[in-house]
């Protein structure tokens, strides 16, 4: 009996697709440039190899059996995947990466990120096709954004904290600054205080913190007092929601909390401790970017880096968390 794997060739799957689409051996034979007897012989060989009956021959039509229907459906899927692989290989040869992963800190505007993704997927190359690069977005927190990049899990990190020289082999550029404000729910005990709140007073109240997503690098802790009760959540959005529900207090990025502050769901309070504006950047591995002698490589990363050169885009990534979608050119 012929080997099953060897029997399931692209030619055999194309034959099944043609017969299934045209509903006739004779019509399929004409389209494939074969005589009907040769096509019938090829189908019988495939049936023998799989040890199943693919067509019900009791009628004059090419009526598929249940096994034939399954092979037709799976065969069409495999043919589509083969075409997709061939297209991706061709595009990789012209410089487009097969995949690109972006790690973005939780303070980065998802609205703007998705608009950039829309623009990326809408691109047309010289062959009037899209880049074909598979995109993956990761949400990270604090040191986790750096870790995703330096560990090779991401090709581009947006929203890394600035401060100190980047690791060897990493290129970094400034993204911008964000104000963090201390906010509580209107019915929180601290909301009634009219004076700047001291650390001693803060220590009496539960803080809400976002867990650092780093697994190998040392986790970063920001604005927590020693001995303070802490409610830890997984994202900045969850932290804001927890504080709206009066589950704790703490500093939140003003652009993300702006809508809730304007609606009165959060109240901004002054505290005695000083808080500088947080400085963020974006970074990538230098060997992943286009090089003078390798200009055909890294085109997807190069496109994203080009977008990040725009001051408007950088500001939107930090500031624009609500509003109608905009076109990115």
UniProtKB/TrEMBL annotation:
GO terms for molecular function: DNA-binding transcription factor activity; transcription cis-regulatory region binding. Belongs to the LysR transcriptional regulatory family. Residues 8-65 form the HTH lysR-type domain. Keywords: DNA-binding, Transcription, Transcription regulation. InterPro entries: LysR_HTH_N, LysR_subst-bd, WH-like_DNA-bd_sf, WH_DNA-bd_sf. It comes from Aquincola agrisoli. This is LysR family transcriptional regulator. The keyword Transcription applies.
